[in-house]
Amino acid sequence: MAGSRDTWWERAACRTTDPDELFVEGAAQSSAKRVCSGCVVRTECLAHALDQRIEFGVWGGMTERERRALLRRRPTVTSWRQLLKSARAEYDDARQPASQGQPAEAS
Question: What phi and psi values does residue 93 have, to the nearest 5 degrees?
């Protein structure tokens, strides 16, 4: 069953990129990571790669080496999707001005 959460890749910045450009080694990885820099689904992509233990390529702005290091640092995480979703929500909440969402004061 495909729902909206399953179609994040349809909005990915790399969807029109040649896949060979994302599965590179060495210095070429910096160029591949730039594709991810402004992507609206970067978090979903990274969570997918971490949850699925994808070994190769740049996913969500991280190389395979960076993902392996993250997995080693956080071995108890059972759902990267849930963890990153929660972290993004907290970040978004913290960025909102204090007055946003508050009723306007009467003059």
Answer: -65, -40
CA 4, CA 69: separation in Å to the nearest integer?
30
pLDDT per position as a tens digit, 6-15: 589 999 999 9
pTM of the model: 0.77
Phi and psi at 106, nearest 5°, equal -75, 140
List, in sequence order, every residue forming a beta bridge with 62; answer none if it has no partner.
59
As beta bridge partners, residue 59 has: 62
Residue from 79, 39, 89 nearest 59 by CA = 39
Nearest to 44 by CA among 76, 7, 95: 7
Residue 33 host element (H or E): helix 28-36
Q: Which two tokens stand for residue 13?
A: 């910045």
Give me 74's structure tokens: 């956080």
Residue 99 · residue 92 · CB < 8 Å? no
